[in-house]
Design brief:
This protein is of the alpha+beta class. Helix content is 18%, strand content 36%.
């Protein structure tokens, strides 16, 4: 009896400990209950005097806070004064008005239309300038006007006189776009806004896209007896682009002046920006192959331009960001011409003054320049390619100070005069942490530490993720992370799931919080899987040569590294070499498809979500940047297409796609499936009606991850 009682108490104690410390994560926890959602800082905006910032509270009131004390100063706007919900807000430069946007309707990845309102603090009145939803609404710098895009035309609204002026009249769906950008510019140059005020509020420079000759792509949208066909212009690799025009509208005389960007029309204009001069506009011009960049300086009164900067590269040039200084004599620009991404100071005539940052590391973000102290603010990979830290750097490059000591991934949002910044810090095992800091990096107070999530995680079975490095077949060091089951036993053998993206310049194996997937991997680890993620050749922040080593052969070297690593990793005594799988999304889905075909002897199982299956099907800006055109490099396009290797597939392959994917078209999945059918290859598939590249929606995401989880448990 004593032995039985003792055994009863021991078992009871174990059950009690397990119920507290090792609760199991469910898919519902992750995707519908939001059990593990981290908190952020909503609507944070610095005010122009540098002493205050604003943020929205949970009731959508706009609260003003003191940077120095953290105390509430006042409530600038109560939600019940305006009776709008789900709104965003922007101050006019003089902070006398608010531009409010609500009823958002997303168009593509960045673009949206919304209803707009103006709130005047002096009159405490809310007005709706126009009833129609518009795109890209913003105040003029002097706060007297609004500019926006409606029905592919650019408009200016005089707030005081309550009048609308139409700048362009030729806008037409799938033909002419004024003031915004076409699909491919938005996706690949992250450019959805196509108009810019000069600082004096006297003129607007804007893009016009003539996409008449761009071939049309259509997507079937289901839900009706006769489904709709959504048609838009999408230039695939080797196909025609929009013809770009840059024009300037002057408010005083209501005239439009065309700017000379050269006779060649098969070019890209990825950026335009005003200098500090009211009639000087900078224009970035890239050739079709994206290996020659020129910066033009335009006189907007005459339309004439001159070249002030030229850069060429054997592979390609990433679009730089340019900052013009208030001396009207110089500008800052980033470039990889040293082999690493660094900042340079040039005269307005294009003469080099100084390379500001130097070293075998990259500048990741340029946060701005403080004219008063002649100081730049950046984040870099100097300490580790898997981490980011924020620095201040003097314009002459002589003094550089680290402002963020916390280990991991750091980013900053500075106030108007660079006296304070909002720090965002996280690591691969730690949720985001937000704090206000002064200009030297000292923390003044914590705004959000996600302590409740961290505490909640303690009651679940959470395995630690390890960041480390490994060598490829050519002894190049590659970053990776490994998640082993919490109760890992080296005497046992475990199946392995590799997570991959692998696209040029991208990183996954980094010391940053990964959000929802972190908990999905924990769920799989709790079921006995090892999760591994390797950043192979072509990924970012190991220098230009490493990143561009895949040029003209996209997919070839990236999958070689994944296959080689899988073979080497399988040699560990605790790895079940017969149960190695690979999964990825988008470029990662492409990699997973190459893995299960080219690596058929290594990978038992693969899941490809929204994969590119032949680069001929993808857009020309992205694809040609890394592959040139199929007319010039067709053999490489086809050799590195998983469609042309389907006969090698021996394992379990699940291909998943949204039917309304405007980015990586459903066509990619259809052609892959068709090739497998023709070769007699067995496969599994799942499609999501009317879903885009993100396959979003809580019920959809739950279904998607349930499908993938069951496939992994059954097939790996």
């Amino acid at each position: 009896m004593i032995k039985r009682l003792f055994l009863f108490f021991i078992i009871g104690a174990l059950v009690t400990v397990r119920s507290y410390a090792q609760n199991s994560i469910s898919l519902e926890d992750i995707f519908t209950k939001n059990t593990f959602s981290s908190k952020g800082v909503s609507g944070f905006k610095s005010m122009k005097n540098g002493a205050y910032y604003t943020a929205q509270d949970k009731n959508e009131n706009i609260i003003r806070y003191s940077f120095t004390t953290g105390n509430t100063v006042d409530t600038l706007l109560f939600q019940n004064e305006i009776n709008l919900s789900g709104y965003s807000y922007t101050f006019s430069n003089d902070e006398s008005k608010l531009l409010l946007q609500t009823n958002f309707k997303h168009i593509y990845r960045h673009s949206y239309a919304a209803n707009i309102y103006v709130y005047d603090f002096s009159t405490k009145k809310l007005t709706q300038p126009i009833a129609d939803a518009v795109m890209l609404a913003e105040f003029s710098p002097d706060g007297k006007y609004l500019a926006y895009v409606k029905a592919n035309n650019l408009f200016v609204f005089d707030i005081q006189n309550n009048t609308e002026s139409r700048i362009t009249t030729n806008g037409e769906l799938n033909k002419i776009i004024n003031g915004s950008t076409d699909w491919v510019y938005e996706e690949e140059f992250a450019l959805s806004k196509g108009f810019y005020w000069n600082e004096q509020s006297t003129a607007i420079a804007f893009y016009t896209f003539d996409e008449s000759e761009v071939k049309e792509f259509s997507m079937t949208m289901y839900g009706k007896l006769y489904p709709d066909e959504y048609k838009f212009k999408y230039p695939k690799a080797g196909e025609s682009n929009s013809v770009i025009t840059i024009q300037v509208y002057t408010l005083a005389d209501k005239q439009v002046k065309k700017i000379d960007i050269g006779a060649e029309t098969d070019i890209y204009i990825p950026r335009i920006a005003w200098t500090k001069d009211a009639n000087k506009l900078s224009i970035q011009r890239l050739n079709r192959l994206q290996n020659k960049l020129e910066i033009l300086l335009a006189n907007t009164e005459t339309g004439a331009t001159k070249i002030i900067y030229t850069e060429q590269n054997k592979a390609y040039i990433d679009v730089p960001e340019i900052t013009f200084l208030s001396d009207k004599k110089s500008f800052l620009i980033n470039s990889e011409k040293s082999g690493w991404n660094h900042l340079y100071h040039y005269t307005i005539d294009g003469k080099l003054i100084k390379q500001i940052t130097k070293g075998n590391w990259d500048v990741d973000n340029f946060y701005g320049y403080n004219e008063k102290s002649k100081t730049l603010y950046v984040s870099t990979s100097e300490i580790s390619s898997t981490e980011r830290y924020v620095y201040s750097v003097t314009l002459d490059g002589k003094v550089k100070k680290q402002l963020t000591p916390k280990k991991g991934w750091n980013s900053a949002t500075f106030n108007a005069d660079f006296t304070y910044f909002l720090l965002a810090n996280s690591s691969i095992n730690t949720p985001p942490y937000y704090a206000l800091c002064n200009a030297t990096g000292n923390e003044l107070r914590v705004l959000e530490d996600n302590a409740s999530l961290i505490e909640k995680m303690k009651s679940y079975s959470i395995a630690n993720v390890e960041l480390t490095t490994t060598a490829n077949a050519y002894n190049e060091q590659l970053n990776l992370f490994i998640m082993k089951p919490k109760n890992f036993d080296a005497s046992k053998k475990y199946p392995v799931l590799m997570y991959v993206y692998g696209g040029p310049g991208h990183q996954l194996a980094i010391n940053r919080w990964m959000g929802g997937n972190y908990f999905w991997y924990q769920l799989l680890a709790d079921k006995g899987y090892i999760i591994v993620c390797l950043d192979g050749r072509g990924t970012g922040f190991k220098g230009e040569a490493f990143k561009k080593s895949t040029y003209m052969q996209l997919g070839k070297y990236e999958i070689e590294d994944q296959i080689y690593f899988a073979k080497q990793f399988a040699k560990n005594s605790w790895v079940d070499a017969s149960r190695i799988g690979i999964w990825g999304w988008s470029f990662g889905g492409y990699m997973a498809s190459l893995g299960i075909s080219k690596g058929a002897d290594v990978f038992k199982t693969a899941i490809a979500v929204a994969p590119v299956t032949n680069w001929r099907y993808y857009d020309n800006i992205y694809t040609e940047r890394f592959m040139r055109t199929p007319q010039e490099n067709g053999e490489s396009y086809d050799n590195n297409s998983p469609i042309n290797h389907v006969e090698k597939i021996k394992g379990n392959y699940l291909i998943i796609h949204g039917t309304a994917d405007d980015n990586v078209h459903f066509q990619n999945a259809v052609e892959m499936v068709n090739a497998m059918i023709n070769k007699g290859v067995k496969f599994d598939s799942e499609f999501y009606p009317n879903k885009n590249h993100g396959i979003g929606g809580s019920k959809t995401r739950l279904h998607l991850y349930d499908r993938m989880t069951r496939f992994i448990l059954e097939k790996l």
